[in-house]
Amino acid sequence: MRQGVLIYDHDTDRMDIRFDLDDYYGGLHCGTSMEVFVNNKWVPTRIEINDQWYLVGIKTGNLIGLRVRI
What pairs with residue 53 in β-bridges? Predict the structure, then answer.
């Protein structure tokens, strides 16, 4: 598994994962599974979009900067 942080890519209008300065996942799609680090533990989830991007079962108003692994 690789660990990084969620970012928003304005060029593709998609969420992405940044692993390092020039190392990105390549754009996330609806249904992509991952784990997010919340409350000091890794929680399995998947990313979806409605009016905005969200993680299923994760209550947060902003995904940018969340630590994830995939």
Answer: 49
Compute the distance between CA of residue 5 and CA of residue 38 in angstroms, rounded to an integer: 13
Q: Is the pTM of this model over 0.85?
A: yes
Task: Give the integer Cα–Cα distance in Å for 26 and 5.
Answer: 13
Per-residue pLDDT of the chain (70 residues; tens, 9 = 90+): 999 999 999 999 999 999 999 999 999 999 999 999 999 999 999 999 999 999 999 999 899 999 999 9
Tell me how far CA of residue 12 lies from CA of 28, 44, 57, 60, 62, in angstroms. Answer: 10, 25, 25, 23, 18
